[in-house]
Amino acid sequence: MTRTIEADDDTVFVPAGRFGNCLRVVTVAKEPADADFSDDVKTYVRRILCGTRTMWFAPGVGLVKYIHYSDRSSVYSIQLTKYEVRDAEEKDYFPLSVGNQWKYERYEEGAHIRVTEGYRVAANEDDRFYISCAMYSEFLDDAAQRDYLRTYLEYEEASDNEPRVRTWALANLGTVHARLGEMEAALEAYQQADELAAKLGDARLQFDLLYGTDWSNPAEFVLERYEQALKIAEEMGDLERQILCLGMTFDCALRYQRGRWYNKALDAAKREGPVAVKLGDHSRVAAAEAEMDLARALIADPEGEHALNGGNRSASSVGVSDNEITCSGLTGVGHLYDRPSPPIWNYRFWLDAPLLKFPVRVSEAWSSLSRGTDGMVERIIEADDETVSVPAGRFDGAVRVKSALQLPTADEGSPQANEVYNSSRGFREGERWMWFAPGIGIVKAEYHHANGKRTIIELSSYHLVEPGDSYFPLAIGNRWHYEWRSEDGDLLFKEQERVVLKHESKFYLACSGYTTNIKEYGEHKY
Q1: Are 291 and 269 in contact (CB under 8 A)?
Q2: CATH of 160-287, one of 1.25.40.10, 2.60.40.1510, 3.30.70.1660, 3.30.70.100
Q3: Is residue 483 within 8 Å of residue 470, measured between CB atoms?
Q4: Distance between CA 393 and CA 90 in Å, rounded?
Q5: Which 8-state DSSP code applies to residue 98?
Q6: Is the Cβ–Cβ distance between 426 and 451 less than 8 Å?
């Protein structure tokens, strides 16, 4: 981390007033050279914390403005709105007399809220000052966000010492105008942001503005800006940004243009694969293959244009050892998160635990914590020689494995105590049976949900490159098609799993699925 005093004569305009001769202090925090990128959550948090932080201190007042550009391309801006300071010396950039207090506000575009923070020097003991902090947030509707951003821009234009943050505010203003249906004003705000970024000559900033275009805008406009962002990423030689653009292009074309642009989605997926190969990112290679499978399936299906949310796709890795079969979810987009949905082995929280243990022994049981919760998954082999009949055929010698998931009771105030968690609990808890046929793989699964509903998944067709007797044959090119049905026999999902590559001891599967029968996220024929 490096900290530099870049100026001592800046003029800053904020809601609390005009402040001259401000000290500008810039702090740069870089990711460590040996940073571990294997943990997505830690990488996400680290990139939020790392970046460039600029703070302005006014003499006799203290901190009046703060801007943080994270390595995740997000912007965090705080302004002083009110203060009470006494006994401050002329060059005191942080006056700490007991009773001094400051009030700040910041806007969070993703949450649509304004956060107010209050600080007060509460005590002084042996020249160590204790500062109390309190904050609250208030939701801003689109009209209130528009007004807030307009006022914010007036302060920034008057200060004229941080043009990059103006591009952020203009882009957010464009998004709010679009959500309000004020498209002429939205286009003007986007244009001003783009022109300012181009004037600054900051390619990364130009990319971020284009890539961050909100989907409340017309899809044609969004896709055009993604194409521009892709060109910038290619000029930068930035493979990570290229793959981000292509993935979002696929998603936008698939979800919002339906059958009209499924071919555009397929083209984006085809372009994404080679970039993922260059990156050496096996999960993204599999995800791109899943995107291609999904687009092709929707193009071929006469009802494909009615697919809810454009379907879903994901990449999974499967490991088969002498002791067990384990599946891990790597990436996923488009899931109906509060309902069971493809892939067949996924019930969102049931990943990463062994699906089957070897040698196969009836009554063999094992348990593990479910990922993302404190729930416990209990599994047991109930039979090892069952005959299963499904649309793909009759299979003998199948192993039946029962799984049971009990989620913890959500305590009030915990991250789990929210409407989605509790409303979907009846689907996410319950029992699941899965049948593995030797030489074929998973041929059937059945959920008995805690809410009394049932979901049945059956193998409809398959193609195996190499014969064998494995309970999960993993030759590259193997594929399985499944149909998900309700207890009444109504078709819910169509699913495909395909083995696309192997790296070290793991195989990577492209997983895709969609529904044309479920019309919305809420209650449906499940």
Answers
A1: yes
A2: 1.25.40.10
A3: no
A4: 86
A5: T
A6: yes
Cα–Cα nearest to 312, from 339, 279, 277, 273: 339
Q: Which residues contact 76 (CB under 8 A, 6 or more apart)?
A: 66, 67, 68, 70, 106
Structure tokens, 115: 């956060």
- Entry pTM: 0.74
Q: How far apart are CA 392 and CA 175, in angstroms?
A: 49
Which residues sit opposite 108 in a β-bridge? 113
Name 31's bridge partners: none
Ranges of the chain whose pLDDT falls below 50:
335, 337, 349-350, 411-417, 520-526
DSSP 413: T
Query: In angstroms, rounded to a whole number, what is the distance separating the alpha carbons of residues 97 and 93?
Result: 12
What was the pLDDT predicted at 42? 62
pLDDT the model gives residue 233: 94
Q: Where in the chain is the domain with CATH 1.25.40.10?
A: 160-287
Q: Scanning the structure block, which residue is given the tokens 């169509």?
A: 494
Paired tokens of 182: 């004020």
pLDDT for 362: 97
